[in-house]
Amino acid sequence: MSLIGALNCSSLAMMAQSQGMQTVSNNIANVNTTAYKREDTLFQTLLTAQRGTAAGRERMGVQAVDRREVWGQGMVRATGRADDLAINGDGFFMVTSSFGGRSETMYTRDGALQQRYVDVGNGSQQAFYTTAKGQYLLGWAAAEDGSFNTSGALVPVRSFALDEINGQATTTALMAANVPSNLPVGESVSLQGTVYDQAWNAQSLNYIWTKTGANAWTVDFAVGGGTVDPAMLGATAVAFTSSGKVLSPQGPVSVPITWDDGTTSTVAIDLSKMEQYADAKVIYRTDQNGSPAGRLYDESFDENGVLWGSYTNGHNRPLYKLAIAKFVAPNSLEAITGNLFRETDASGRASVRDLESQEEGTSLVVGSLEASNVDMADEFTRMMMVQKAYSMASTNFRTVDEMMQVASNLKR
Questions:
Q1: How confident is residue 56, by pLDDT bands cut at 50, 70 and 90?
Q2: Which parts of 58-197 are beta strand (E)?
Q3: pLDDT digits (tens, 9 = 90+) for 332-372
């Protein structure tokens, strides 16, 4: 190789090691950046086609190629913040930069979410879950029955999406109580529960127990805001065993109710938990499936990426389910600003599924964030290696320069 070729190799070596130092510096600078994926600089031999001449053979050297370790899992660290999400395992959150006409879909592991208010037209604003850079988080919206169509379109995940839910009229009820076995025959005791009418208003439901004999009772029902049709129901006979447990009826009692507004309900009442002991009347538990209308007061994600809403009527309802993307070759994703990645031909197409459909090994950790996968000890080791290589290349460059000066002085 000629001196010009040696000079060229030395300069290429310094350029390549300079890029390696830049990569190390960038990794160290982002050691505390959420879900940052470290870069590694590799070195490749650079050799042009040989034409059989010295000039052709001396264009050799090295070039630097950066590779990002997207597949490397960072440590999951608890933050205690409900809107912080960490993916433990493979996969990426799916985000987009445009709320209206959906723009390009991008991918990230950074789950430090925030709620951002957006003007959606007509002077109204709505809150959406976004990344720190303002990218909208994507998922599937729940249907009316709370189910998800995970093959349907992805939409930005809205915060407090369903502010109010309808109530529910009571269709089943349960009374667990004790009626005194020492009550004289012909006397009655009354127990009270609650049911909801067709307008979702709470109404009292009275259980009137009348003793008819040893271990034998009848129960009648009365409701506030309506009437129980005695012709359809009549008094219900209840028999107890000698040990105080219900012998009959075995199934629920259907109670037809006509409300004052003209609507009707039929409530199936379970009496199987009733008891008869020589004590005062005691209500252990009443239960029913009706509820008033409810307003949303809180929402949170679960480990399957489902956003649940909690309502003032005691109901919880699924609102959204997050979409998780996986790639055959995640290291081949194109890195862009803000811990975002873009799909490439080399990475393959994204496989989009929900966490409940993913194979075991991938889960969502709520109240946590994924740290960077930068190993400081490894970076400092690489820094020393790059520094030494750069120093040797510069020494080689200086030596070649001195040799060229000697050759130039030979002409004098």
A1: very low
A2: 60-68, 76-78, 85-88, 92-96, 105-108, 114-121, 124-130, 136-141, 155-156, 158-159, 164-165, 172-180, 188-196
A3: 999 887 689 999 999 999 999 888 876 667 889 999 999 99
Question: CA nearest 217: which of 243, 241, 240, 190?
Answer: 240
- The per-residue pLDDT for range 244-285, each reduced to its tens digit, is 999 999 899 999 999 999 999 999 999 999 999 988 899 999
Instruction: Answer whether the bond into residue 156 is a cis peptide, omega within 30°.
Output: no
Q: Which two tokens stand for residue 49?
A: 């086609």
- At a CB cut-off of 8 Å and minimum separation 6, what does 126 contact? 117, 118, 120, 158, 159
Helix/strand/coil for 279: coil
Residues 69/142, Cβ–Cβ less than 8 Å: no
Categorise residue 28: left if φ over 0, alpha if ψ from -120 to 50, beta otherwise: alpha
CATH fold for the domain made of 172-288: Tick-borne Encephalitis virus Glycoprotein; domain 1 (2.60.98)
Q: What is the pLDDT of residue 55?
A: 47
Residue 198 contacts residue 261 (beta carbons within 8 Å): yes
Closest listed residue to residue 259, CA positions, set 288, 225, 291: 225
What is the mean predicted confidence (pLDDT) over 285-310? 91
* pLDDT, average across residues 10-32: 85
Q: Say if CB 195 and CB 288 are below 8 A apart.
A: yes
CA angle 23, 28, 33 (to 5 degrees): 110
- How far apart CA 141 and CA 294 sit, in angstroms, is 20
CA distance 367 to 301: 9
- Overall pTM > 0.85: no
Q: Which two tokens stand for residue 323?
A: 């979409």
Angle, CA of 371, 373 and 377, to the nearest 5°? 115
Q: Quick one: DSSP state of residue 400?
A: H
Q: Which residue has the tokens 């169509």?
A: 149
What pLDDT does 14 receive?
83
> What is the pLDDT at residue 49?
47
Between CA 209 and CA 213 the distance in angstroms is 12
Contact 30, 374 (CB under 8 A): yes
Separation CA 380–CA 28 (nearest Å): 9
**Domain ranges within the chain, ordered by starting residue:** 3-69+373-409, 76-160+311-370, 172-288
